[in-house]
Specification:
Blueprint lengths: L4 E5 L9 E6 L8 H10 L1 H10 L7 E5 L7 E6 L10 H18 L4 E4 L11 H15 L8 E6 L2 H13 L4
Parallel strand pairs: 1-6, 2-4, 2-5, 5-6
Antiparallel strand pairs: 3-4
Helix pairs in contact: 3-4, 4-5
């Protein structure tokens, strides 16, 4: 399984994978952070495609073409807004990773890249989010054997270090 998971510090919009995951809002509208970067690079057709879908609930994922991105698909996962941890935020975040992987597998995709969902403006604590992300991917990978490569695409050294620590912590779990 270790060979299927990579952790990098890069711009997710430049990756050569089958799908990149967008840390989306429920309206699937262009926003800030990684969402804004993905929409800018994909071009205006992405916003049109997203608007036609009519939104997506928190914890769920939906797929669109990647348009001008190197990745042919964008999987939009709506992460939870951090409210202190007592409103099921962890389960909703785990669901983002799980539903994105299952959707990628359903489409026959072999590689997927995730940002650190909900850790920006949504305020989810980065260390908790990294552990949930890595644990959920590890738990879901046996169900999606066609996915050969999962990339945690971190934005900065701190995020990368947190994901690497989470990978090490879940190695024998």
């Amino acid at each position: 399984m270790e060979g299927r998971i990579a952790i990098i510090d890069a711009d997710i919009t430049t990756l050569d994978v089958d799908a990149i995951v967008n840390a989306a809002n429920e309206a699937l509208a262009p926003g800030g952070g990684v969402c804004g970067a993905i929409h800018r690079k994909a071009g205006p057709d992405l916003a049109v495609a997203c608007a036609a879908l009519g939104g997506c609930p928190t914890g769920e994922s939906i797929i669109t073409p990647g348009f001008n991105l190197p990745a042919p698909y964008v999987i939009h996962s709506v992460g939870p807004v951090w409210g202190g941890g007592e409103s099921g935020e962890g389960a909703k975040l785990a669901s983002c990773y799980r539903t994105a992987l299952l959707l990628a597998a359903e489409k026959g995709l072999g590689s997927i890249a995730f940002p650190a969902i909900s850790t920006g403006i949504y305020g989810f604590p980065s260390d908790r989010a990294a552990l949930i992300a890595v644990r959920t991917v590890r738990e879901t990978l046996p169900e999606v054997p066609g996915i050969a490569r999962v990339v945690f695409c971190c934005f900065g050294g701190e995020s990368r270090a947190l994901h690497e620590a989470a990978l090490a912590a879940t190695a024998n779990a």
